[in-house]
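Posting this for the archive.
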Amino acid sequence: NKLFQSTFLLALTGENATLTQISGASAINAFVALLGYHAAALIVDNPAVGRLRLQQTGFVITGALFLICGFCSDRLSSMTLVCIYLGSSFFGQCGPNCTTFLIPAEVGVGL
């Protein structure tokens, strides 16, 4: 999710941002990522979702949002870029990142 972080911070704070403003924008992103972890914790054990489907869905959604950012960033408003970035942060945590740590921990317990 660091790929577009400078674009996100610039869109959210402006070019003449202070360190406090940049830290606040980073804190917003961290909060959204934390929400993604909590969402993953709530749905990962649901039989309709499961670990594999959660990981695959997170990859697809995050990838689609990155493609939109990459190909359309010059045509999107700053607020749209911020929303897309925060969405990619949420779905990156609620999916690939959560399951990357969860699956090895569960498999490694029996070794």
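The radius of gyration is 16 Å. The chain has four helices and no strands.
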